[in-house]
Amino acid sequence: MYPYLRLISTLLKSRRQPRLELDRECVIECRAGVTDIDVFGELNNARQLVFFELGRWALSQQVGFMPLMRKKKWGFVVGGASVRYRRRVPFLSRFSVTSKILCHDGRWFYFIQEIYRNGEICTSALMKAGVTGKGGLVPATEVAIEMGFEGWNPEIPQWVQAWIDAEGKRPWPNS
Fold this sequence. Notes:
Layout: H1 4-15, E1 26-31, H2 45-62, H3 65-72, E2 75-85, E3 94-104, E4 109-117, E5 120-133, E6 136-138, H4 140-146, H5 158-169
Antiparallel strand pairs: 1-3, 2-5, 3-4, 4-5, 5-6
Helix pairs in contact: 1-2
């Protein structure tokens, strides 16, 4: 089940945080609860994706995207992810989720999101996410302009470009 109460709590906490520039990191503090763990007593890998989603919502709130999203009737969509799991997050342990927008390619935004526990990185994800409107995907450049970040066009890191290129070569199954 989707953690609606956690989402509401995350958004309310984020509203009280100072506004962030588009390229700044957002941090949320979390705890691995009973609905988050797997049969091995650790944070489930799929649930980590949910915590990353909460992190993107918090970041969106802190950079001022939420009022614009409501005004324009826009939504979010994830277009891809590359996740690396390195350390476990045991039941009831506290951890932090960091989220930062690295860049965009004109269409999509690319986020780096990480889970830390006791100062050590546990999981790192590159997320490709976009904004949707009535006509489909809203160009990232248009979103940045609407948010007051006209000209925000950071260089795409080489490793991110390599992932974008690799995803472009990946065959899509016939349906």
